[in-house]
Specification:
This protein has 506 residues and is mainly alpha-helical. The chain contains 22 helices and no strands. It is 71% helix and 0% strand.
């Protein structure tokens, strides 16, 4: 086979990859759910394009193409974060081909080609094409509209390559999270220097977009050079990671951890709480996820509670409740949505004795309820500082997270049938194995208190809504042993099906 035939064959393999998955055929409802979510996102993108077009058409002094290009850094950042849901790195996908007698750089080039020319990279066209038709074609001509779409597509291509670079480094260490942060800071530099100003930020990128639309070759050269540089760097990074995977030696590092003797007073429940502590501290994937989750929570807390003294006027009671609730619920939801996925590595040991799983569930509930002390302290600091959060709001978020949120999250153990490797990197999981019903449960768990707060705040007052949420949450906390035992019985009823999935996906 020549290189061209190998290239086509590798592309064919990637198209058939989903059919080779263990979960293929059992997740048709998940596809329907994703289609619905995709339709909602497409609707919002179309709505945004109409709003932007109406805004620009009312002001004849604005260049319509340069106006939307001024927001390119924001779209770049949103697109970068959305890619973490599904996109894998070539170094993850190429491993099965290492033993074949084909050029490794050709494999890398094949996957990079596919990462550029795929439908996901054209999703923003749902917003950009209608905007170009409504605002650019009739004012500046079709060639300007095509140049506008080409410029944005080059930006999206660059984002796809930058994402692959960052995610490859994140596989090595969670410390590389500073790489996208530094890049975003560089993009925001025009709005920071010489003074902090959103107006300066948009003026800078508006001028850059105006130069692109006026045919300034220097600006186009910068855009093309960034894309070529990102492809070149990504090609080298992926090759180095592939070679590192092929020649990696597994070494065992002995960590001397505390015995956590203070859990001994809780008996067998305490032993399972020790197991949870050691699961997090000894293994790369749970530890990296925990660090990233709490980093996000602290950043959001600082952004919306400390650094925004007028947040109450900006977001209102419902908006402030959402950000307070986010700090409480986000860590537990992200961590416990993988319930039984880590335990799948030693599920046979857990099934030896009667009600072992019930004790494990109880220990996890106590452990993650104790962890809620951290966001509670953060909330108390905000209350003492006299910011937009109130004591009743913080207590309501604490009780709702320890009650209904924990209850709904623990039900996910009935649907998790894929084992997560304990030594996998943070970037290993792509979300491809997540099911539709757990996603619906989580969306409902997050949206319900916000909806209650909005309705009661509109009818009565914010404090009454927080009291109602607290009162509704307390029964879930008091009856936690009842719903934990119910979940345990449901799991035991389908244990053979779940255990088969957990074993086969190790």
């Amino acid at each position: 086979m020549n290189n061209r035939e190998i290239f086509k064959e590798l592309l064919k393999h990637r198209k058939l990859a989903n059919k080779r998955s263990l979960a293929y055929g059992s997740e048709q409802k998940a596809k329907l759910f994703m289609y619905i979510i995709g339709g909602i996102i497409a609707f919002y993108l179309l709505f945004a394009s109409i709003m932007f077009a109406m805004l620009v058409n009312d002001d004849r002094h604005l260049h319509p193409a340069a106006f939307l290009l001024a927001g390119a850094p924001l779209i770049f950042a949103i697109d970068f974060m959305m890619r973490f849901i599904s996109q894998q790195t070539p170094s993850q996908l190429i491993k099965p081909y290492l033993i074949l007698p084909i050029p490794r750089y050709l494999c890398i080039d094949t996957f990079i080609y596919r990462s550029i020319f795929n439908l996901e990279n054209f999703s923003w066209m749902i917003m950009l094409v209608p905007y170009a038709i409504m605002s650019i074609v009739f004012r500046n001509g079709i060639f300007t509209a095509l140049a506008f779409l080409l410029a944005y597509q080059l930006i999206i291509y660059t984002c796809s390559q930058f994402y692959l670079i960052c995610r490859s480094f994140l596989k090595d260490s969670i410390a590389y999270i500073v790489l996208p942060i530094v890049f975003v800071a560089l993009m925001a530099l025009p709005g920071i220097v010489p003074e902090l100003s959103i107006e300066h930020f948009f003026k800078f990128y508006y001028a850059f977009g105006d130069g692109l639309m006026n045919g300034n070759l220097l600006y186009w050269a910068i855009l093309v050079a960034l894309l070529c540089l990102s492809i070149f760097v990504n090609r080298k990074v992926q090759y180095n990671h592939v070679m590192a995977e092929a020649s990696r030696l597994t070494t065992t590092k002995i960590n001397h951890l505390s015995s956590f003797s203070f859990f001994d007073k809780l008996g067998e429940i305490g032993e399972y709480m020790k197991l949870e502590m050691k699961l997090i501290l000894r293994n790369k994937q749970p530890r990296s996820s925990l660090i990233l989750i709490w980093s996000c929570v602290i950043i959001m807390w600082l952004s919306y509670s400390i650094f925004m003294p007028n947040a109450a006027d900006i977001y209102g009671n419902t908006g402030n409740f959402f950000w307070c609730f986010y700090c409480f619920a986000f860590p537990g939801i992200i961590t416990l949505q993988r319930l039984m996925a880590y335990e799948g590595n030693y599920i046979d040991c857990l099934m030896v004795h009667h009600e072992n799983l019930l004790k494990l569930f109880t220990a996890k509930y106590y452990f993650y309820t104790i962890v809620l002390i951290l966001p509670f302290i953060m909330g108390i600091i905000s209350v003492i500082a006299g910011e937009s959060w109130t004591l009743l709001m913080v207590i309501a978020c604490l009780l709702y997270t320890a009650g209904p949120i924990m209850c709904m999250t623990f039900f996910l153990c009935l649907f998790n049938k894929n084992t997560m490797p304990l030594d996998a990197s943070f970037a290993h999981h792509t979300g491809a194995d997540m099911k539709w019903l757990p996603n619906v449960l989580m969306m409902g768990a997050i949206g319900l208190p916000v909806l209650i707060c909005w309705i009661l705040t509109s009818l009565l007052s914010g404090n009454i809504s927080y009291i109602v949420i607290s009162v509704l949450s307390v029964p879930f906390i008091l009856c936690h042993r009842i719903w934990l035992r119910y979940i345990y019985r449901r799991f035991m009823a389908i244990r053979y099906e779940n255990m088969e999935g957990l074993r086969s996906s190790r």
